[in-house]
Amino acid sequence: MIVNAKMDNTKSLIFKPAGQFEETRFEKIHNVIFDDSEEASKIVALEIAELIKQKADEGSMCVLGLATGSSPIKVYEELVRFHKEDNLSFSNVITFNLDEYFPMQPDDLQSYYHFMHEHLFNHVDILPENINIPDGTISPEDIYQYCIDYELKIKAVGGLDFQLLGIGRTGHIGFNEPGSHYNSGTRVITLDHITREDAASAFIGIDNVPKKAITMGINTIKNAKRIVLLAWGLNKAKVIQKTIEGQVTSQIPATYLQDHKNATFILDEESSSELIRIKTPWLVTSCIWTDELKKKAVFWLSEKVNKPILKLTDKDYNEYGMSGLIAKEGSAYDLNISIFNQLQHTITGWPGGKPNADDTNRPERAFPPKKRVIIFSPHPDDDVISMGGTFDRLVQQGHDVHIAYQTSGNIAVTDEDARKFAETALTLTSDTKKIEGMLKDIQSKTSNTIDSKEVRSLKGTIRRTESLAATRYLEVPDTNVHFLNLPFYETGTVKKNNLSEEDIDIMCSLIEEIKPHQIYAAGDLADPHGTHKVCLDALFMALERMKYEDAIKDCWVWLYRGAWFEWDSHEIDMAVPMSPDQVIKKRNAIFFHQSQKDKVMFRGDDSREFWVRAEDRNRLTAKKYHQLGMADYAAIEAFKRYYF
Ligand code: F6R
């Protein structure tokens, strides 16, 4: 955990007594960075639990402002645990939720009413009359008065003791979108397009996302006595940087929190990664120069002054806060050569190792010359999107390549596609009952129902056959293609189950069967549904369980990043260049995933098709390598080694 400056006198890990926080040079909001969101959520839940108990001891009510979305889920999980295991009572708690879509029925699966009951209220002893969530069914004529009453109700119970917040990529808090006034109260607001895109996966498509919402105002939020904002993941890094280090502006409403006397931002490593003290610490403090930090600093400087590594001078280093580094290393010349060599040694056209070659300076071992490889792919297409070029090389270089699709990916197939396939199937059989049943299910589906088991299975089959078309194109025998259908994924909705023993067993038995020398897996933690992270956790748990077994004693693990982000240059341990022809071959392999083309259902915050993103990203990595002084490749796929 990293706490920003001036935190020494605080009484709890994150609690900031009013008025005691002095700003650091760049940061205008108190913040604490945790290794991961799980640990952070527990600390936040603890602060809330202590407040509830303190109020109960005083014989008073505890008024909580609550948020929905992915950020607070683990905080609620922990509060439920406190209730069940430590007898934390919510009988003295009054809650006010920040917002609700408008219009919205409470029993709709996407309603915040449903969310709050599912994650918290159904599991604790809060009195129903103490729960307040903006009512998405209110008539447009009554809404103005309704919002005024919501404000008055908060005031009548003494105001919010504690407000929990998430932050949108637009910088919204609650649904106060850019342009919101600092003095605004509870009201109806039109949602920003970006916010609707972010919600699209929960609504199975942006067209189903309501255009409006009722939200508490900035002023309502700022009047809370204590504010804690949670932000996890790379998706939030840019907006967090602007909010904490930028000027107060209505264009990023969260910046209004700079004026609050008792607000803390709780961040994980990814969401804090754009803060100056994390991204470029040498600009603000004297650093402990680890090998990784040295690489990061040199690559950054090379980009900043637009010179390849070998042309950086002592003066360049001195001018950008790295005189200490140069003093330690002797001269720019020595440092440049050392970092240049390290970068050069990441490049290889032999991702499975070059047989019979000296491998001292190669990312992979030469021996054994033919390796058994498992490429784990969270969804049926991440393999080719993220590492199609490397995949192809591994096969062409004679390795025994297995592909393991971890989930069925069924929710990402549109109803239109499923119907098309079902109608085709109908013409091929006289036993039409089952298919007609599926067609009926598809046609009677509303935004509030989930697919029947049969339709899910059809959608899974569509993705399965597309995957096989792609793996056959890359010359992998069908017997080397494994569809794991991990059970955690099979809920039919965007919300998935937690990992179970069954999931880990499935992963372990494949690893046991193949006994791989190499495993490739998605280390991309930014996919909008978190499926990649769960799939990676499943692998880590399997490796942990098997770490002393012979099956993986010679196994190296390489992490690729999915469609959303690439590793930073300093994080790359293996860079596999691609020729223009290989770029086209990879594109063709991606094209076999037709259900994911054109109208991509779950594309996160990027509206480009997957093949376009993949190509841009691989081209950009090559460009960065070139700019640092390496050869000029058409494209590069990048990997980071994971040690277990
Ligand atoms: C939710 C809310 C929003 C979310 C924000 C972040 O009640 O008011 O401001 O907190 O959109 O959402 P997640 O946590 O899903 O990234």
TrEMBL record:
Keywords: Carbohydrate metabolism, Hydrolase
Pathway annotation from the record: Amino-sugar metabolism; N-acetylneuraminate degradation; D-fructose 6-phosphate from N-acetylneuraminate: step 5/5
Hydrolase keyword on record: yes
Gene expressing this chain: nagB
Pfam families linked: Glucosamine_iso, PIG-L
UniProt entry tagged with the keyword Hydrolase: yes
Family the UniProt entry places it in: Belongs to the glucosamine/galactosamine-6-phosphate isomerase family. NagB subfamily.
NCBIfam families, per database record: nagB, PRK02122.1
Species of origin: Tenacibaculum platacis
HAMAP family per UniProt: GlcN6P_deamin (MF_01241)
Domain (Glucosamine/galactosamine-6-phosphate isomerase): residue spans on this chain: 36-264
Catalytic residues (UniProt): 99 (proton acceptor), 172 (proton acceptor), 177 (for ring-opening step)
Record function comment: Catalyzes the reversible isomerization-deamination of glucosamine 6-phosphate (GlcN6P) to form fructose 6-phosphate (Fru6P) and ammonium ion.
Highest taxon of the lineage: Bacteria
EC number from the UniProt entry: 3.5.99.6
Name by which UniProt lists this protein: Glucosamine-6-phosphate deaminase
InterPro entries found in the cross-reference section: Glc/Gal-6P_isomerase (IPR006148), GlcN6P_deaminase-like (IPR052960), GlcNAc_PI_deacetylase-related (IPR003737), Glucosamine6P_isomerase (IPR004547), LmbE-like_dom_sf (IPR024078), NagB/RpiA_transferase-like (IPR037171)
Catalytic activity: alpha-D-glucosamine 6-phosphate + H2O = beta-D-fructose 6-phosphate + NH4(+)
